[in-house]
Design brief:
Number of strands: 4
Strand order of the largest sheet: 1-4
Distance between the termini: 54 Å
Number of helices: 2
Strand content: 5-15%
Largest sheet: 2 strands, antiparallel
Length: 68
Amino acid sequence: MSKGKAKASKKKKKSASDRKQAFLKLVLSDTCAVCKTPCARGMQYWERMQEPGSIGKGVPCPLTKTYH
């Protein structure tokens, strides 16, 4: 009897460029102030922006997560 050799099928792994990546929008303190579901990071940012002379560029909002 001859033994048949079966080829093992390999699954292709997704490369880093093929995976979907999560993107979060940057929001300013005025958006965090009126948010219906405030997060800890947003509230900390909002409190820092209440000080006179503070400069901020925004904070990533987890509620605005999209995948590309």
